[in-house]
Write a structure and sequence with these properties.
Chain A is built from nine helices and five strands; from the N terminus they run H-H-H-H-E-H-E-H-E-H-E-H-E-H. Chain A has helices at 3-12, 19-28, 33-53, 59-81, 103-114, 128-135, 153-164, 183-189, 198-210; strands at residues 90-96, 118-126, 140-146, 173-177, 193-194. In chain A, strand 3, helix 7 (153-164) and strand 4 form a beta-alpha-beta unit. Chain A starts with a helix and ends with a helix. Chain B has a domain at 55-299: Alpha-Beta Barrel (TIM Barrel), CATH 3.20.20. Classes of the chains: A alpha/beta, B alpha/beta. The A-B interface holds A 14, 55, 57-61, 63-64, 67, 98-104, 106, 123-125, 149, 151-152, 155, 179, 196-197 and B 96, 98, 100-102, 105, 107-109, 168-170, 173-174, 176-178, 220-227, 230, 263.
């Protein structure tokens, strides 16, 4: 097994204690840091996402995989600094006003970050104006809006309406998700995309940015 | 029990069911009481009809602070969650009542337990012996003494939900599989498996319950939170102790577990759970065929929506009873507020006829 495959395997299995050492070894062997990031970790998280979609693994396994990747990225960061900004764009993600649920939003943050985005987590119970304010950052390519309950769907509608009225609307895509949300609802309120799970959200976000 | 055939006149109500603080409701003129029928069904005997909505009630009295914190007090005295919901639960975790959601949550960001491996330093277990159960029972005397419908109590915040309330959702999920944290979770669930039966015994002693509903959500709308293996390792041993302690009291055990949890039904069976009323996104036909002889399932004609005509509602209920009548299934969540009363009536009528025939 190559060093990159070892890293990928450790990330997939969520071995947070192993990954930093393996990344150090890979750097010591002269492997390109970008290669370590992309092939060793981001690709591994894509596999994790696919397995999650297919119910081969569940939320805890996805969380520990993302945690393992994070540990690896910490070791990699100084080496990546020399090649400049490696993020493929910035994503801002939050749960709408009146809704305190965070697990779906947290998973989307993790998977989007693991796909190569810089992520700003706006938290829960986020007013529409806060989404618009965050989206004003020219680096923002994706705005993720989450709602878990039918009762907070109107807040999602208001939030997307406010984002759609933003002067820089052409600069970012609005993605929505959450238990009661459907493609029809996403279309009706004018979102650019709806996905059913966090792994699909990461794939769609990446496709928006890198094509 | 005599198989008394169904008469149309049974649908004309002659008495009301118990008042749970929101007004009483009409009962059908059943040949035996809904409670008697339900108990036959729970004992594994053939009931005279498929137990349906309103054939049972479950209290969540204010004496258990969790019920106030969750804004979910149902007992003889009316409770307004918008006024009194939220606040500390029995473990002193603070809940916030969110009016537009119609429920309470622990606001994320400041968990009571920062590090699950050190929960013993932070968590103090309550003492149910020090609560005034006699006064609570007195307040609910009419509910307790009624024998019309099956009578139960619900414990909110089961094992996993308690863990979430202590340390938030993501850390709770990780701790279920993280080798460095699992031992602490085992210790917590072990204590909880000793603790919950104390409350259940109080419910039996003071409220004389027939059934205990234990609330522990295990999944999201698309999948369980965790694998069957994780549930078997982390939850089943402790849930089984709670179920066994409940059964020792002669009380039935219903698990309330939201989410698409079909994959976890084997774990429920292994824990000895009598009934599970899963949400509509679970494939109840498949589950009834696969596990119908091992666990009682709640099911309903969930395809019915408010835009159905009365004839369509009747047809859906007829088809539902035709399929589910041969299984140990009771009428669970229906999906149409507009038609719920009619769904209840048709389910009663068709299942009475299916089980006992119709009087000429």
């Amino acid at each position: 097994m190559s060093k990159l495959e070892e890293i990928a395997s450790a990330v997939e299995r969520g071995k947070a204690k192993l990954v930093p050492g393996l990344v150090e070894e890979a750097l010591g062997e002269g492997i390109d840091p970008l290669e370590i990031l992309n092939k060793g970790m981001i690709d591994a998280m894509s596999v994790v996402g696919e397995k999650f979609k297919n119910n081969e693994i569940f939320v805890p396994e996805m969380l520990v995989a993302a945690r393992a990747m994070k540990k690896g990225v910490e070791v990699l960061k100084p080496s990546l600094a020399s090649v400049g900004d490696v993020s493929i764009g910035k994503a801002v993600i939050g749960t709408v006003q009146g809704d305190l649920h965070d697990i779906g939003k947290n998973l989307v943050c993790l998977m989007i970050e693991s796909a190569g985005f810089e992520v700003e987590d706006l938290g829960v119970d986020v007013p529409a104006e806060r989404f618009v304010e965050a989206a004003a950052d020219p680096a923002v390519k994706i705005v993720g809006v989450s709602a878990l309950l039918t009762t907070t769907m109107p807040a999602m509608k208001n939030t997307v309406a406010a984002l759609n009225a933003a002067p820089n609307r052409a600069d970012f895509k609005v993605m929505v998700g959450g238990a009661p949300i459907t493609q029809e609802f996403a279309d009706e309120i004018g979102a650019d995309a709806y996905t059913t799970d966090a792994a699909s959200a990461a794939s769609v976000a990446k496709a928006f940015v890198v094509g | 029990m005599e198989r008394i055939p169904f008469r149309k006149e049974e649908l004309i109500s002659k008495r009301e069911g118990p008042n749970m603080g929101r007004g009483a409701f009409p009962l059908f003129d059943t040949p035996i009481s809904p409670r008697e029928n339900y108990l036959m069904f729970l004992r594994g005997e053939e009931p005279l009809w498929m137990p349906i909505a309103r054939d049972s009630i479950s209290v969540t009295p204010a004496i258990v602070r969790d019920n106030i914190a969750r804004g979910f007090v149902f007992e003889a005295t009316p409770f307004d969650p918008n006024k009194d919901g939220g606040g500390p639960d029995m473990f002193n975790v603070d809940w916030e009542w969110v009016p537009q959601v119609g429920g309470s949550m622990v606001r994320p960001g400041a968990p009571k337990v920062e590090d699950i491996t050190e929960w013993e330093d932070v968590i103090e277990f309550p003492d149910p012996d020090s609560w005034d159960w006699a006064a609570s029972a007195e307040k609910n005397r009419a509910l307790i003494e009624q024998k019309d419908v099956l009578f139960g109590a619900t414990i909110l915040n089961g094992l996993f939900e308690r863990l979430i309330s202590f340390c938030e959702m993501s850390p709770a999920l990780v701790s279920m599989i993280d080798e460095d944290e699992q031992e602490a979770v085992h210790r917590l669930f072990d204590r909880l498996a000793d603790f919950y039966p104390k409350i259940i015994r109080k419910y039996k002693e003071y409220f004389n319950i027939d059934i205990l509903t234990f609330h522990d959500d295990w999944g999201s709308q698309r999948a369980p939170f965790f694998s069957l293996d994780t549930v078997r390792e982390m939850l089943v041993p402790y849930l089984k102790r709670i179920v066994d302690a409940t059964h020792e009291l002669g009380v039935y055990f219903e698990l309330h577990s939201c989410g698409k949890n079909e994959l976890l039904v084997p774990a429920m069976i292994e824990a000895g759970v009598d009934m599970w009323n899963g949400q509509p996104m679970n494939d109840k036909r498949m589950l009834a065929e696969k596990y119908g002889d091992k666990i009682i399932l709640g099911a309903a004609p969930v395809e019915i929506t408010d835009d159905y005509t009365d004839e369509q509602v009747r047809q859906s209920c007829r088809e539902f009873v035709e399929f589910f009548n041969k299984y140990r299934v009771y009428g669970g969540y229906a999906s149409s507020p507009k038609h719920n009363a009619k769904i209840r009536e048709y389910m009663y009528e068709f299942s009475r006829i299916a089980k006992c025939g119709e009087a000429k």
